[in-house]
Amino acid sequence: MEIVIYVVAGLFLLLALGLLFGYYRTRHPGLVLMASCYGTASVLSVMFMHWWPLVAGFVLAWLLRMMGLDPGPGRKEQ
After folding, report:
1. 72 in a domain, yes or no?
2. Measuring CA to CA, how many Å separate 9 from each of 21, 51, 68?
C-alpha cells in the first residue's frame, strides 16, 4: 500500500507543479489555490503515510473547480 501512496502522491505533486506553471503563464488565481490543494495533499500523505489526505485534496480541488476557480479551456482570439 505504501508504494501506491508514493505513486499517487508523486502524481499529485506533478499536477501541482503543472498548475503552478499554468499560473505563471496565465496569472489566474484559481490555479494557485488548486495547486496548493494538490501539493499539500501530496506532502501530507507522504508524511502520515495514509491515503486520506489524497482524497481530501482531490475533493477540495474539485470543489474549487465547481466554484469557478478553474480557468477552463483557452479560446482562440480572432
Report:
1. no
2. 18, 9, 25
In angstroms, the CA 17 to CA 28 distance is: 15
Assigned domain for 36 exists:
yes
pTM: 0.88
Q: Is the pLDDT at 16 greater than 80, yes or no?
A: yes
Query: Which domain does 39 fall in, by range?
Result: 2-66
Q: Is residue 52 part of a domain?
A: yes
How many folded domains does the chain comprise?
A: 1
Percent pLDDT > 70 in the chain is 94
Amino acid at 60: L
Residues 6+ away with beta carbon under 8 Å from 28: 22, 71
Q: What is the mean pLDDT of residues 16-32?
A: 93
Dihedral angle of Cα 58, 64, 69, 72, to the nearest 10 degrees: 40
